[in-house]
Amino acid sequence: MLLQLIRKMPSLLKMPGLQVTPDYVDAFFRANNSFLYQLVFDPLQRKLVPLNAYPDDVDPAELHYAGPYPFSCYQHGVA
């Protein structure tokens, strides 16, 4: 659904000369995933956890662009 909306942006903005390139779509989804699954410190667990739980179709290893998942001994020092 979101992909369809992104591709319709030129017509929704009434800018027919605007092109939504595959690179733009890829960068949009990477930015969205970086926001949705950013690592935050959970004081109860005393470790970094994703802001939102990863759905079944998202592999955390594929989110390398959002930053590496640090080792647990390092996490408390970061927070």
Shape: elongated
Secondary structure: helix percent: 40-55%
What's the Cα radius of gyration? 17 Å
User: Which segments are poorly predicted (pLDDT under 50) over 5 or more consecutive residues?
Assistant: none
Total of helices: 4
The helix/strand order is HHHEEH
Q: Which strand order does the major sheet show? A: 1-2
Note the main sheet. Answer: 2 strands, antiparallel
Secondary-structure content class:
alpha+beta
Q: What would your notes on this structure say?
A:
With 79 residues, this protein is an alpha+beta fold. The protein has one domain. A hairpin with a 4-residue loop joins strand 1 and strand 2.
In short:
The chain has 79 residues and is of the alpha+beta class. The chain has helices at residues 2-7, 9-12, 22-36, 72-78; strands at residues 39-42, 47-50.
